[in-house]
Design a protein that fits this description.
By secondary structure, the chain is α+β, with helices and mostly antiparallel strands. It is built from 3 helices and 2 strands. The chain has a two-stranded parallel sheet with strand order 1-2. It starts with 7 loop residues before the first strand and ends with a helix. The relative contact order is 0.22.
Length: 59
């Protein structure tokens, strides 16, 4: 059991992020946004993934 208040770390891979980015109820409600809001988690990814996601947001 984890002590209360400890943050859990989750590594997100490219395929997982891509699929969650596509799955959405509408343009404003992507599943990836809901996953990133999970309490008690800190999400990390490879630096290149962050760069590519930034490019997607510019388009």
């Amino acid at each position: 059991m984890r002590p209360m208040g400890k943050t859990k770390c989750a590594l997100l891979d490219t395929d997982f992020i891509s699929k969650l980015h596509i799955i959405r109820k509408d343009d404003e409600n992507r599943l990836i946004d809901r996953v990133l809001e999970l309490p008690g988690y800190q999400f990390v990814c490879h630096e290149q993934i962050a760069i590519e996601l930034g490019r997607q947001e510019l388009v």
